[in-house]
From TrEMBL:
Cofactor: NAD(+)
Pathway of action: Nucleotide-sugar biosynthesis; UDP-alpha-D-xylose biosynthesis; UDP-alpha-D-xylose from UDP-alpha-D-glucuronate: step 1/1
Pfam families cross-referenced by the UniProt entry: GDP_Man_Dehyd (PF16363)
Species whose genome carries this gene: Sinanodonta woodiana (Chinese pond mussel)
Entry protein name: UDP-glucuronic acid decarboxylase 1
Subcellular location: Golgi apparatus, Golgi stack membrane
Source organism, top-level taxon: Eukaryota
GO cellular component: Golgi cisterna membrane
């Protein structure tokens, strides 16, 4: 339409200039309003998907959304079809197959132990109250005919039929066991009595997951099993240290009085995939801080030493001890000793990035030195750790990298 026609069509000629301006402004506003309205129209599924992907990619560190979605899709399809694939397991005949209970089996160590025993072809029952454990750690076995997961607190008695009991249930990291000290003591005392009672009724063999903390802040270095320890009975760690010491006492009391077969593993610091993100332990702290570009915090000067074993080495040791004829306590740990500052440097180097190491005040009753003497384990179990520190740390870094990715993904998902 030409402008003269437009003027004829609209009664613009008769309007005064102020009215004409007002008319033009209103006309433009109506046009803008209409275009906005049409852009907020319901989007089609493809547009919606694109919008979601665009939103996800606005995240601080972009994540591989398509890969995450593909994995979720696969899981949904598996669930819909009922064709869940389990890791491969051996077949054991009735004579060799054992009914094995793992208390705390949904935790870090317990879930790796479940993997080992399931793959060997045993029937595994995991009992857990999910205080620090999570279903996700054993999710890959749920539904398998040889596997059962029971939500239960071992402070209450449990009546099932078993041949062996791996008794691991107890919070293990300082922030977790200090969170509710009374519950920590109850789990290690009442819970252990309950499991020993179950062992007595079923005539099962029980292995206690004890700890190097029974040596406290040791005056003997390296620590062998003859050493009685140096523990503060009323310090902040006592609920755990003394809890485990009395749990050991109970095991040998039941062995003596009730003829129960017991095994006691004194476990030294262990690390690996499925450690808790926020358990405050050295390896997980350092890796997470380095991955997120945060300062790596070292308590005290960092001259205190620790020796860390990789979780699969520990699991091999636990199974060897359970099936051995040796009933005295056995240290399971890696004697490869490093200062905490060394660990900070190794992890920083393996993760890359530019995190700085910063020192914070030392923690109360933090042991200055820790290194196992593993002569007993070598002699009686023919066991020693095999996984090199850097190999284990790299696997753990990979695990935490994926955990951070999934956490970011879930956080973004929750914003929709
Ligand atoms: N990881 C180590 O470095 C280390 C070192 C020394 C000893 N240990 C011992 O090994 C065992 C396993 O340690 P982890 O590192 O796997 O710890 P974790 O916290 O990952 O696992 C402990 C499990 O026990 C469960 N649990 C706690 N209280 C319970 C209760 N009352 N009833 C039922 N379940 C309960 C938790 O939910 C969790 O699944 C613990 O007994 C710990 O003391 C571990």
């Amino acid at each position: 339409m030409t402008s003269s026609k437009l003027m004829r069509f609209l009664p613009l000629r008769k309007m005064k200039s102020t009215k004409l301006i007002a008319f033009v402004v209103i006309f433009v506003l109506v046009l803008v309003g209409y275009s906005k309205l049409s852009s907020t129209k319901e989007t089609g599924p493809m547009e919606a998907k694109d919008n979601i992907l665009r939103e996800f990619n606005k995240a601080d560190s972009p994540i591989d959304v398509m890969e995450e979605i593909a994995q979720l899709k696969k899981k949904v399809l598996e669930l819909e079809k009922g064709t869940k694939k389990y890791p491969e397991t051996k077949f054991l005949n009735y004579k060799d197959r054992k009914r094995i209970l793992i208390t705390g089996g949904a935790g870090f160590v317990g879930s790796h132990l479940s993997d080992k025993l399931m793959k060997q072809g045993h029937e595994v029952t995991v009992v857990d109250n999910f205080f620090t454990g999570r279903k996700l750690n054993v999710e890959h076995w749920i539904g398998h005919p040889n596997f059962e997961l029971i939500h239960h607190d071992i402070v209450n008695p449990l009546y099932i039929e078993v041949d062996q009991i791996y008794h691991l249930a107890s919070p293990a990291s300082p922030p977790n066991y200090m969170y509710n000290p009374i519950k920590t003591i109850k789990t290690n005392t009442v819970g252990t009595i309950n499991m020993l009672g179950l062992a007595r009724r079923t005539r099962a063999r029980l292995l206690l997951a004890s700890t190097s903390e029974v040596y406290g802040d040791p005056e003997v270095h390296p620590q062998n099993e003859e050493y009685w320890g140096h523990v503060n009975p009323i310090g902040p760690r006592a609920c755990y240290d003394e809890g485990k010491r009395v749990a050991e006492t109970m095991c040998y009391a039941y062995a003596k009085q009730e003829n129960i077969e017991v095994r006691v593993a004194r476990i030294f610091n262990t690390f690996g995939p499925r450690m808790h993100m926020n358990d405050g332990r050295v390896v997980s702290n350092f890796i997470l801080q380095a991955l997120q570009g945060q300062p790596i915090t070292v308590y005290g000067e960092g001259k205190q030493t620790r020796s860390f074993q990789y979780v699969t080495d520990l699991v091999e040791g636990l199974v060897a001890l359970m099936n051995s004829n040796y009933s005295q306590p056995v240290n399971l740990g890696n004697p490869d000793e490093h200062t905490i500052m060394d660990f900070a440097d190794i992890i920083k180097r393996l993760v890359g990035g530019d995190s700085k190491v910063v020192n914070k005040p030392a923690m109360q009753d933090d042991p200055r030195k820790r290194k196992p003497d593993i002569s007993r384990a070598k002699l009686y179990l023919n066991w020693e750790p095999k996984v090199q520190l850097e190999v284990g740390i790299n696997k753990t870094i990979e695990y935490f990298r994926n955990e951070l990715k999934s956490t970011k993904f879930s956080e973004r998902l929750n914003t929709f």
